[in-house]
């Protein structure tokens, strides 16, 4: 989250009339080519592609139902260590390449299905905060005056909290659960989009072509959506990509604390949270979900970095 | 002139790029004698600044000297250890840059930046170095130097900042001062003041000045001798009077025609068509031929196929197929044109 | 300088006011009757009326807010429903642990982050640079709580019996007691001073240091190693990336070329001419990193069984102890705002370009 805040500050400073004078829609094809030339872009895309494939193909890839309790079905115990036949595990024992958990479920299958939830969390939270953030920023910047002051002061207050803490406080009020956790994470990441949008709206507003559109009789909303917002797109695309990474991380943190997704949902943070007291006896229950979270977050962070370079928005 | 103070011979500079090395400067040679002022003149992008940075060992990371030598007082600067070289820089050879406001460190006071030179090269303690710094500030004509010592670079005007740069460069009375477009970023009135200052200080210290500029007015005012550069090569060298009286290379002539002359009314100022070709698209043959009016008239096939050599006669040289080395003036066809202009 | 500082402080006032308003509103947004929410469904009508009256819930909302702000200004954060004790008392006990943890983590993150960043920038594009950046990118992407658990496993289980063993939980080993400095020195304190003294004596490392109690000092320090390592990873990575990119930027600036042209040797160049400029933007993000530290402290304390404000906050949520949730949220947010204020002020003092004359 703090990474995003830094990025926002830099983006605000960097949005000048000059950067906005370019073509309204950046040349996406060239951006794509540049992205593929950067190492961070390549690795990021690869990881995300990998995760998307896992999420989509989970029913095919998973050897078990993620929620199936295997007591009586197979001869396995609770929290059994990984058993991989290729690595010398006895052939008589059923194969669980990431072991089993406290309810005797196959951890590997749960990890695979967890990719669906984590990607969904990232996309939903960013979409929600993006839509409302851009709307707030655009309205504040475009209409100015009291509207601007009130909306942006409110954004400042949200930024005044350490983001995870505010998310925790919101969940404390709304009650634990995945939906409330998503809402909380969306709210705390909202100001980033609002501020960047407002900054670009403010600098575009003064440009000649906007004045020209006004003279030609275009309505304010039309100017806002057709002329002003497309110019703010570049920094927002970068922010949103990095935002998916922080949202996944924050949501996993909430779930770990027991405030987000609730058991038996196969969510990585929840899996970590319910296994944390068994770290000394069954470390595999902690190890694999953590790696999964890290890999996904790393993918979006790298893609965000690559996009920033490719789009040439200096956000640091 | 027995042995010049600074002798650059056949300097080649290349830049690394994704498409392979690009030759930015080719076979650059120049002599500089004590107390002399030599100007390197040319359009932007012709390699003047890169050449001067290479002499000081200050090329940016992508640049590399691939051949030639820079002999200063007998030793080749390019072969020196970084340590020995930094002992010379700012001490016996100094440099000032184009944009004085970005060339000063924003988080150090003016005084501290000048005093550092004395501490580095003369081993003075801070107190003594600061006292010496006040003196040089006064010498470059900064009023109230004691108070100015505590000023921050952002508080100075462009002209003041360039004076500070000059003070810093001349603090140790160097034998050579390389000035890379020192007045380009300044207002016209300030430009004249800075040039006057440089000339006055030169008289006092006997420093040789290598002045890089694109401004022929500055050349006329300052230079003893001139080297004209185009696309990484020296195309003409001459004593300043000779150059202005009878420029020989078509590029030099075109440069001259593009500048208004006070007191003479010209029907029309000429513009040299096109631009200096970028590094990765240098034409074959003479580098200037795509823009050369002489070539357009004569259509000498050598111009497009073979690179002309730099042929020299007493005190001057020219790199052009169309100029007779013995003839001190330019190509025939152009001479007629000029009189009608 | 003074007027700038004053202006900057005045700007934070509405933010703090907003924070109070938000936390106050949050506590009023709790679905259902606050009395039922806090005392449980079994609370009778009579106890609820008494409770609502005691808490002021029967007053009009704006008046409640004024009442709430007024009490906080007097240092009264209400009473914990669960412990039936003043929340201020709990803060005095728990905050020092969190502060000690966050401060140590900030120090470690800054020193190693800046060091790694400089190393990477000086050897730009070398294997050192690439390695550092891989490390930093991984660090940024790592769930703090997972790293903590893995460290606890590696150092607490694998390394058992070796000198590398580190305690995976708690603040002090069993049997080790931290004697508050005022008791060690035989001070007789009462009232407010006793509270203040207790607060500072709860910084165990600091307390052991001033009383010269080395066994306690080392024991407390050893218990802090893993949590601090865990908590500092993300800020360290962010700081390393920032330092690197900032230093690379500065090394390409004209004034660095000027310094080289005047004969500054390479060794001195980075230290004296580039670092000062390069670290200015790093300072601006230190305040933001404090946010990551305070949020991460909640997770780290949960992992390592440390009962600081973060852990208490989560416990309070589950036991529906809303006065504690509210108080701790306000407390941490205000600390965060104040730290950012300090960072801003020191930045403006350090950068001559924006330092007011």
UniProtKB/TrEMBL annotation, chain A:
Entry's Pfam families? BPD_transp_1, OppC_N
| ABC transmembrane type-1 domain location | 115-304
Instruction: Spell out where the chain crosses the membrane.
Output: 43-62, 117-143, 150-172, 232-259, 279-304
Source species, domain of life: Bacteria
What keywords sit in the KW lines? Cell membrane, Membrane, Peptide transport, Protein transport, Transmembrane, Transmembrane helix, Transport
Q: Name one GO cellular component term.
A: plasma membrane
The membrane-topology field of this record reads: Multi-pass membrane protein
Q: SUPFAM superfamilies annotated for this entry?
A: MetI-like
Q: Which GO terms describe its biological process?
A: peptide transport; protein transport; transmembrane transport
Query: What subcellular locations does the record give?
Result: Cell membrane
Q: Which family does it belong to?
A: Belongs to the binding-protein-dependent transport system permease family.
Q: What is this protein called?
A: ABC transporter permease subunit
Species for this entry:
Pseudooceanicola albus
UniProtKB/TrEMBL annotation, chain B:
**Transmembrane regions listed in the UniProt entry:** none
List GO molecular-function terms, semicolon-separated: ATP binding; ATP hydrolysis activity
PROSITE patterns reported in the protein's UniProt record: ABC_TRANSPORTER_1 (PS00211), ABC_TRANSPORTER_2 (PS50893)
User: Which residues fall in a coiled-coil region?
Assistant: none
Query: What start and end residues bound the annotated signal peptide?
Result: none
Q: How does it sit in the membrane?
A: Peripheral membrane protein
* Residue span(s) of domain ABC transporter: 8-256
- Please state the protein's primary subcellular location: membrane
**One Gene Ontology biological process:** peptide transport
Cellular compartments annotated = Cell inner membrane
Q: Which InterPro entries match?
A: AAA+_ATPase, ABC_Ni/Peptide_Import, ABC_transporter-like_ATP-bd, ABC_transporter-like_CS, Oligopep_ABC_C, P-loop_NTPase
One GO cellular component assignment for this chain's record is:
plasma membrane
Please report the name of this protein according to its UniProt entry: ATP-binding cassette domain-containing protein
Keywords attached to this Swiss-Prot or TrEMBL record, sorted alphabetically, are: ATP-binding, Cell membrane, Membrane, Nucleotide-binding, Transport
Q: Which family does it belong to?
A: Belongs to the ABC transporter superfamily.
From TrEMBL, chain C:
Q: Does the keyword Flavoprotein apply?
A: no
Enumerate the spans annotated as ABC transmembrane type-1 domain: 95-343
* Keyword annotations of the record: Cell membrane, Membrane, Transmembrane, Transmembrane helix, Transport
**Which InterPro entries does the record cross-reference, listed alphabetically?**
BPD_transp_1_N (IPR045621), MetI-like (IPR000515), MetI-like_sf (IPR035906)
- Which coarse location class describes where this protein primarily resides? membrane
Q: Highest taxon of the source?
A: Bacteria
* SUPFAM superfamilies (UniProt xref): MetI-like (SSF161098)
- Membrane topology of the entry: Multi-pass membrane protein
**Known PROSITE patterns for this protein?**
ABC_TM1
Show the stretches that span the lipid bilayer: 9-30, 101-121, 133-159, 278-304, 324-347
Provide the GO biological process annotations. transmembrane transport
Assigned GO CC terms? plasma membrane
Which compartments is it annotated to reside in?
Cell membrane
Q: Is Transport among this UniProt entry's keywords? A: yes
Q: Which PANTHER family does the protein's record reference?
A: DIPEPTIDE TRANSPORT SYSTEM PERMEASE PROTEIN DPPB-RELATED
What's this protein's family per the entry?
A: Belongs to the binding-protein-dependent transport system permease family.
Protein name, please?
Answer: ABC transporter permease subunit
């Amino acid at each position: 989250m703090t990474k995003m805040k830094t990025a926002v500050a830099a983006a605000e400073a960097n949005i000048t009339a000059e950067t906005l004078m370019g073509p309204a829609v950046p040349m996406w094809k060239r951006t794509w080519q540049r992205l593929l030339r950067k190492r961070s872009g390549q690795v990021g895309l690869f990881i995300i592609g990998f995760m998307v494939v896992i999420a989509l193909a989970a029913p095919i890839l998973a050897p078990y139902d993620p929620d199936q309790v295997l007591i009586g079905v197979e001869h396995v115990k609770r929290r059994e260590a990984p058993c991989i036949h290729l690595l010398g595990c006895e052939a008589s024992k059923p194969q669980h390449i990431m072991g089993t958990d406290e309810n005797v479920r196959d951890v590997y299958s749960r990890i695979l299905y967890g990719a669906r939830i984590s990607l969904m969390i990232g996309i939903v939270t960013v979409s929600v905060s993006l839509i409302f953030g851009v709307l707030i920023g655009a309205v504040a910047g475009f209409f100015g005056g009291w509207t601007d002051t009130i909306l942006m002061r409110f954004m400042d207050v949200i930024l005044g909290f350490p983001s995870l803490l505010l998310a925790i406080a919101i969940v404390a009020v709304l009650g634990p659960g995945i939906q409330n956790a998503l809402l909380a994470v969306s709210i705390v990441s909202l100001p980033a989009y609002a501020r960047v949008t407002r900054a670009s709206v403010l600098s575009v507003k003064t440009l000649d072509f906007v004045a020209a559109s006004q003279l030609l009789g275009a309505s304010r909303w039309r100017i806002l959506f057709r002329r002003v917002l497309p110019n703010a797109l570049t920094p927002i695309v970068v922010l949103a990509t990095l935002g998916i990474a922080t949202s996944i991380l924050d949501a996993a943190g909430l779930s770990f604390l027991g405030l987000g997704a609730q058991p038996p949902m196969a969510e990585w943070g929840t899996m970590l949270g319910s296994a944390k007291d068994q770290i000394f006896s069954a470390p595999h229950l902690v190890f694999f979900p953590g790696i999964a979270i890290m890999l996904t977050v790393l993918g979006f962070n790298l893609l965000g970095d690559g996009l920033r370079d490719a789009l040439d928005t200096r956000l640091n | 002139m027995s042995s010049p103070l600074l002798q650059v011979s056949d300097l080649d500079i290349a830049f690394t790029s994704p498409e392979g090395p690009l030759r930015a400067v080719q076979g650059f040679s120049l002599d500089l004698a004590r107390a002399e002022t030599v100007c390197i003149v040319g359009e932007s992008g012709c390699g003047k600044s890169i050449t001067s940075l290479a002499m000081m060992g200050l090329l940016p990371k992508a640049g590399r000297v691939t051949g030639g030598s820079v002999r200063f007082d007998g030793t080749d600067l390019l072969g020196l250890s970084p340590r020995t070289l930094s002992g010379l820089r700012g001490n016996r050879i100094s440099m000032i840059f184009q944009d004085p406001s970005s060339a000063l460190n924003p988080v150090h006071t003016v005084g501290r930046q000048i005093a550092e030179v004395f501490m580095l090269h003369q081993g003075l303690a801070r107190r003594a170095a600061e006292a010496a710094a006040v003196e040089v500030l006064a010498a470059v004509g900064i009023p109230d130097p004691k108070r100015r010592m505590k000023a921050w670079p952002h508080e100075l005007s462009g002209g003041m900042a360039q004076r500070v740069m000059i003070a810093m460069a001349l603090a140790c009375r160097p034998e050579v001062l390389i000035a890379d477009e020192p007045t380009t970023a300044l207002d016209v009135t300030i430009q004249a003041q800075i040039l006057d200052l440089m000339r006055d200080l030169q008289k006092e210290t006997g420093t040789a000045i290598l002045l890089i500029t694109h401004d022929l007015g500055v050349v006329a005012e300052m230079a003893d001798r001139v080297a004209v550069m185009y696309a990484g090569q020296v195309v003409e060298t001459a004593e300043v009077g000779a150059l202005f009286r009878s420029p020989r290379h078509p590029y030099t002539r075109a440069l001259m025609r593009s500048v208004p002359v006070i007191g003479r009314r010209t029907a029309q100022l000429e513009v040299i068509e096109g631009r200096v070709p970028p590094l990765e698209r240098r034409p074959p043959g003479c580098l200037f031929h795509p823009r050369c009016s002489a070539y357009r008239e004569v259509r000498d096939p050598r111009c497009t196929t073979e690179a002309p050599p730099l042929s020299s006669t007493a005190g001057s040289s020219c790199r052009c197929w169309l100029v007779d080395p013995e003839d001190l003036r330019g190509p025939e066809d152009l001479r007629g044109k000029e009189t009608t202009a | 300088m003074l007027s700038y500082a004053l202006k900057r402080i005045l700007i934070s006032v509405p933010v703090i006011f907003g924070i109070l308003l938000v936390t106050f509103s949050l506590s009023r947004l709790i679905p259902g009757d606050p009395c039922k929410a806090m005392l449980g469904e079994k609370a009778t009508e009579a106890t609820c009326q008494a409770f609502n009256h005691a808490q002021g819930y029967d007053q009009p909302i704006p008046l409640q807010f004024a009442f709430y702000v007024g009490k906080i200004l007097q240092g009264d954060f209400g009473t914990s429903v669960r412990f039936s004790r003043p929340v201020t008392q709990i803060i005095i006990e728990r905050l020092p642990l969190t502060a000690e943890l966050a401060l140590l983590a900030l120090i470690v993150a800054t020193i190693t982050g800046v060091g790694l960043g400089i190393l990477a920038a000086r050897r730009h594009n070398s294997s050192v640079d690439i390695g550092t950046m891989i490390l930093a990118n991984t660090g940024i992407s790592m769930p703090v709580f997972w790293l903590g658990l893995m460290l606890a496993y590696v150092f607490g289980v694998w390394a058992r019996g070796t000198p590398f063993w580190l305690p995976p939980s708690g603040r002090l080993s069993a049997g080790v007691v931290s004697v508050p400095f005022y008791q060690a020195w035989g001070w007789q304190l009462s009232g407010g001073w006793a509270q203040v003294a207790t607060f500072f004596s709860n910084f165990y490392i600091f307390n052991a240091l001033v009383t010269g109690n080395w066994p306690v000092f080392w024991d407390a320090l050893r218990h802090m190693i893993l949590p601090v390592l865990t908590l500092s990873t993300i800020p360290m990575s962010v700081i390393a990336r920032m330092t690197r990119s900032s230093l690379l930027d500065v090394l390409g600036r004209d004034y660095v070329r000027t310094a080289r042209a005047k004969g500054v040797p390479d060794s001195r160049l980075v230290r004296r001419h580039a670092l000062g400029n390069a670290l200015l933007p790093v300072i601006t993000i230190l305040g933001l990193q404090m946010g990551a530290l305070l949020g991460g402290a909640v997770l780290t304390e949960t992992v390592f069984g440390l009962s600081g404000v973060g852990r208490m906050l989560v416990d309070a949520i589950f036991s529906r102890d809303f006065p504690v949730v509210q108080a701790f949220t306000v407390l941490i947010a205000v600390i965060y705002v104040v730290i950012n204020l300090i960072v801003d002020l020191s930045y403006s003092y350090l950068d001559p370009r924006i330092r007011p004359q």
